[in-house]
Amino acid sequence: MIKRILLFAAFVIQFGFLHASIVVLNGLTHNYKVENGQVYKGKIAIENTDNTPQNVKIYLQDLSYKADGTINYSTPHTNEKTNSDWIKLNTNLITLKAKEKTEVYYEITVPNNIARAGSYWSVIMVEPVEDLKPNNTKEGVNITSVIRYAIQVITDYNSENAKPDLKFESVKIDKEEGKHILKIAIANNGSLYCRPTANVEIYNRKSGQKAGTFSSLPMGLLPNTSKSFYIDISKMPPDKYNAAIIATDDDENAFALNVELEIKND
Question: Measuring CA to CA, how many Å separate 234 from each of 116, 171, 266?
């Protein structure tokens, strides 16, 4: 493992570097409640923080992800609930001067004949374009890795008649950097995007008294996707416990699961 890390580090030093001069200023999730046949306008604020000009390409892709950390960016229409056909960008390529800021605009034209209530989505990719530069000292080229941004554009149609449906896929305790972390994999099997928070109430298994309450950070969860929610439970001493795990979203939808937990002394 150490050998592989050293080889990777040598590759980066020899052939390139991470370049993060382009930043998105106004958030990576744009959420709209939409109606049939209506047009909605949005923008993406971008800044070049570098001292040299930077070319940036803007394009659409579909998105899905899983609790194991897998993120899949794919061509439009891969997702049956894509809204990529609804979105029109005002440009696909921009050049930013040193320290310059700009805004890229888009329009969402909602069809007149949406069949199902719920969330439709795609992502607008913002990706710096790096030139392949000749290497004067060695054969081949210098490869520069770039950081790209994916801005989710989520459109909720007839959301009053759609709901998230959260399911607990797995619950486990891992030790990371000396801390006990409760990892809760949650899937959204419903038709509506939501931002749940995972909460855990821990009880002494013998006395039944509550021993602690802890929460994760809220995270967005698209339909037919899943994520792992992390909760630091390091304050709990090693023992066996009963626990109630509750996932709640911004609309106060709640989903619960009773589990047994064992925090080991390791």
Answer: 44, 16, 12
For the chain, the first-to-last Cα distance in angstroms comes to 23
Number of neighbouring beta carbons within 10 Å of residue 120: 28
Tokens 């298994």 -> residue: 205
Q: What is the pTM of this model?
A: 0.85
Rg (CA), the chain: 23
DSSP state of 20: -
**Could you read off the pLDDT of 212-264 as tens digits, one per residue?**
999 999 999 999 999 999 999 999 999 999 999 999 998 888 999 999 999 99
Return d(Cα 71, Cα 125) in angstroms, integer.
14
Identify the structural domains of the chain with CATH numbers, from first to last: 17-161 (2.60.40.10), 166-263 (2.60.40.10)
